[in-house]
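Amino acid chain:
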Amino acid sequence: MPLILEHVPGFSERWQAHLDHWDGEDAGPCNDMAAFAGYVVEVLQNKRQENLEAVFGLIEKLMVEGDDTVRDVTATCFIETLQNYASGSKIDSRDFVPYLGSESRAYAKAWDEFTGVKTEGL
């Protein structure tokens, strides 16, 4: 999370609320990443001007350079979360798909194939 907070300072308020919710307990990496995904969902829903290139550039970096745990958490707790919101019509996938890097896009396509869902723009 320090890397995410460094690159996406707008997430800091939501991160603090996440920490407060867990009241000092370890939420686990998936819950932590899901909190970040929730922040990005809000950005997309509200059409806020955020640096989505930086957000998704960081996600791609985690997918490429992260260890197995980091890649798994990024894929299942961030990318899948966005796809799930899109499949439920809570966000428009065309607002984030253009920002996916090659590894992130490959994972998103594989998830679509596995679930039988079609993420628009992939």
Q: What stands out?
A: The chain has six helices and no strands.
